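Researcher: Structure for this, please.
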Amino acid sequence: MQERTLKVLEFNKVKEQLIEHAASSLGIEKVKKLVPSTDFSEVVKLQAETDEATAVLRLKGNVPLSGIHDIRAHIKRSVIGGVLSPHELVQTASTIFTSRQMKRFIEEIADEKLDLPILEDLAQQITPLTNLEHAIKHAIDESGEVLDGASELLRSLRSQLRANEARIREKLESMIRSSSAQKMLSDAIVTIRNDRYVIPVKQEYRGHYGGIIHDQSSSGQTLFIEPQAIVQLNNQLQDIRVKEQLEIERILTELSANVAEHEAELKVMIEVLGKFDFIFAKARYGRQIKASMPIMNHEGRIRLFKARHPLIPIDEVVANDIVLGTDYSTIVITGPNTGGKTVTLKTLGLCSLMAQAGLQVPALDGSELTVFNAVFADIGDEQSIEQSLSTFSSHMVNIVDILNKVDYKSLVLFDELGAGTDPQEGAALAISILDEVHKRGARVIATTHYPELKAYGYNREGVLNASVEFDVETLSPTYKLLLGVPGRSNAFEISKRLGLNERVIEAARSYVSEDTNQIDKMIASLEESKRQAEKEHEEAHDYLKQAEKLHKDLQKQMIEFYENKDSLLEKAAEKAKDIVDDAKGEAEKIIRDLRKMRTEKHAEIKEHELIEAKKRLEEAAPEIKKSSKLTSPKSKKHTLKPGDEVKVLTFGQMGSLIEKSSSGEWQVQIGILKMKVKEKDLEYVGTPKQVDTKPMAIVRGRDFQVKLELDLRGERYEDALLKVEKYIDDALLSGYPRVSIIHGKGTGVLRQGVQEYLRNHRSVKNIRFGEAGEGGSGVTVVEFK
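Model: Predicted structure, token format:
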């Protein structure tokens, strides 16, 4: 890629934002070296690795990449026999620890059925140098201090040091606590000079303690003296310190040699960790700008949905659809210099560069980009009214260079083509240059304010006119790209809004040709029609979402009802049992009363007493409401068999028989539910007619047919999942045992999303990839319960 193009499209600013997401200097180094690739297979791999990292972040939120250090210089010095400092060894151990953590992290995620071939391959390249890490951590703490336990000799020497220091301090403190010391010492403290313990003695008493003078105060009134009584003890202390330092040197030398032995493994580790840091930095940046992975193609096709400029804040930027390389390879954005056109150019150019560098692009899922061998951009500050010859000359030099290099695998971006010279000649030059670039097969977007180029899109095959919408009410552009609608002059409307006399405006209109007026009216009508169509599309989309939500809510309530049916029946049965038990108790009481009456009155029971007892029995019997169930002559005569349509009397729902599960029970399909129902609760309705046609079924209550396969290729991610959800419901209502969903191979994002949804569906029994004759991994076969 041309350095000038990268600078003009501000690719370096994207890299500056990317650096903020790197966790180490290794990742930052790789970001700084990042340039777009022109190799298709490499770009696809770069996008795949970023997508894998994005999936990991989506699942886990973060990765254990803290603690990485660039230890390449440490390794090199250890190999040539140098001794590493404790701090350098601690950095080495920290890096080894992070590599082990990262390796285990990726392997654990892979075990969770997440497909991460690139990240797994990187993790496998790491050799976990656990022994070296533990050896360093056993000898040196995190602050870089060599620990007592680094060796037995060091432990012994440190113990002797502490004992000697204690004896010296004890002896000196006894000296300064004596009564005579109060007048001879400047201060009753023990201090250190030249690594030896001393006391501050007044100048006039310098000979009292003897020993060695190590220092004096700035005034000369105080001398720091090592008393003769502790000279020998200080000498012994220094001797032990020398031995301690030698032992520390020996330990560091041994650890450095250990590092040198693992040179190859450590170099690979550093490279892999730098790669991990770089990949996850790309993924984190993509998450920040709400980007998605573009589908890369060979055909020079560009389809960006709701694309945003990555350097403009999300809450300010206007998203646009940019389509190029299908029915047309050149877009000419016409209209006055009101802004917005240049942003469109830079958005496309920057998205192309980002994609070829392995970065996700700020656009919706399903967006497509191609790999260009070169991206050329002639973009400058062309907003001033007066432009000098030097400006025109510099642009022409750049355009000449572009024309010398452009081919069919190029993307060319012209901003205000032909500006800076006489309008008539500039328009002619612009048409000629566009013809030349278009003839070479390049993908081109050009902006211009010359009205002559409006006709260019109509007179050339493969060229499309476009414009940036302008709001006359606010006197500012909306930055919304209108494909297929050429730009029109807003000078009269703007002048009117700013208060120019209507008479002056009408006079100006008279100087404009009738054809121009007609064209402007036609363009205004096109703009209005497009706005209205987009508004109606958004409203229809909202209604669809509301309908889908209502469908889900109803489906959820139906499922909850059927799930609670058994418990409701059990409660009803228990309540009925209680009523019957109460009735039985009352009946027994009545009978006891009758017997008592008979005994007491010697069987002389009056008729009215019997009538009264009978009435009490009738009142004790529970009132049973008559069932609305009607015995159909058909159900008595017909022997039920699989496939019959029946009415489930307990719910008043229609269903179809699947199989007889046990004596007296059938498995019935009711909508999306399957349940066991007793045969006495079924009413035969009819047997569906067998139709010898293509494998389709009419969904009951609908006026469309359900195919045995659903093709999702080319669908956006969210739309695809909505279609899968609706299709599965329709297939279940149709009673299909098995269907196929075609998602294509592509990047795997759509396949993964579809399969995750199917695994969690309560009616799906099993899913698998298609066989060789069924479409392979581009098809998922779904089996229902």
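Researcher: Any notable elements?
Model: The longest helix spans residues 514-601. Confidence is low (pLDDT under 50) at residues 382-389, 624-636, 691-703.
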